[in-house]
Give the backbone structure.
Amino acid sequence: MSEIFSGISKIKYEGGGSDNPLAFKYYNPDAVIGGKTMKEHLRFAVAYWHTFAAAGADMFGAGSYERPWNTMSAMDGAKFKVEANFEFAEKIGVPFFCFHDRDIAPEGDTLAETNKNLDVIVSAIKDRMKSSDVKLLWGTTNAFGNPRFMHGASTSPNADIFAFAAAQVKKAMEITKELGGENYVFWGGREGYETLLNTDMKLELDNLARFLKMAVDYAREIGFNGQFLIEPKPKEPTKHQYDFDAGTVIGFLKTYGLDPYFKLNIEANHATLAGHTFQHELAVCRINNMLGSIDANQGDVLLGWDTDQFPTNLYDAALAMYEVLKAGGLGKGGLNFDSKVRRGSFEPADLFYGHIAGMDTFAKGLIIADKMVTDGKFDAFVADRYSSYTTGIGKDIVDGKVGFKELEKHALGVKIKNKSGRQEMLESLLNQYICETK
Ligand code: XUL
Ligand code: CO
């Protein structure tokens, strides 16, 4: 097949002084930071849905993206997109891609026909993988787009829909395994409610847990060893999504005894929709040993929905990578660009500019975070702030040696002296790291 992104060759690292917009300024895949290359730390992935399956439509207008495959018949377009995916990933130097079942192949009139379409495309992907280093980071199921999922998938009040969603996940897990996918993601597309007046929340949550348990069992049965990930999101499309945020998901998994089998996939824009920072959600996962992967993007502070923009905020990226490094890295996970170019950025070249912006932002974020971790100034401040728990009564609390009676005795005789939290001093120090780290 002839070149699809003609006129654009492999994107290279040229360094901060470069004025070539089609070059990396900070992402140098082979640069070693803390014993690992940038490529190994960041494990970037292209999101098939935003990059190849989308057309740029919004609530007020039709698709605007210039994409040759969008004007082809569904199956021809699907085959073409396979080529586009690999050519794009190879040129931009992103080592992974991620997909929903419905991004790669169109639905047929029946489930059997849909699965046949998938088989054709999966075999094309498998063939193309033989001549490529690009791998599958994760697969997932789109059990929210088709109108059959109007009331949810595994949380639908209709048991036939529960069964249909199960069949879809079964197939998607099989193809993820076949393509060597390292993880499998569950994002509860419409697993939530619009009104409690028509909702049996207890049954829906029990069913969601039953569904996930069946997925764990089936993965074991077919020998799929990828990491299972749940991606929290508080709202959109439903008013209340059950996988609200990291804390809610971890509590849910523990309630149903599912926590040993899952980690979390944290998306920046979902964190902000939940009223949290990106760093907060990553920190919640880190302290629970459940950080699995990241959907890298950002929202717009003035908009209250999931705008899925390419990440360019250096502060957020640095603090995100600070959490990742402190968590010991992303393991099998990676940084998937769940990001779309704006509707007005309609030319194929914009896909390159978007990914370059995101990759450079996280590369610089990694460099800054590594310096913050190795200098240890923030850690030292935090350790000192909590030092009252390392000796005396604080140590007795931590060691479980005292109860309310002993604490009352201590409180009666103590002269309390607090220390400043020095927030402004620390924020100024963070500015110094952002501005001065080379
Ligand atoms: C939706 C979203 C999804 C998941 C995968 O907001 O983030 O694309 O990442 O289903
Ligand atoms: Co996502």
Remarks:
- The chain has 16 helices and 14 strands.
- The longest strand covers residues 135-140.
- The pocket of cobalt (II) ion (ligand 2) is lined by residues 231, 267, 295, 338 (CB under 6 Å).
